[in-house]
Amino acid sequence: MRQLKLIWDFRGPDALKIAEHHEIHLKEYIAIEKTELNITGFQQINDMLSIAFMVVNESEMKPVRDALKPHRGEIYSPEQ
Q: Which superkingdom (predicted)?
């Protein structure tokens, strides 16, 4: 089954702290909703842009998307 990486973008001088904190909420959502996958993370792109992400199976994407409103998504491969 195809896996999708849902991404939230955070901009500004506090972007990394915000992305790191957002990952906590993504993990809470996974625990409450018992999603099939438990892959989350955050990453600093540059000083003013960081992301938080969550990986879901394609079959779970729509309800997660509707509940959490990610900014964008892409196909996930474990090498990312």
A: Bacteria
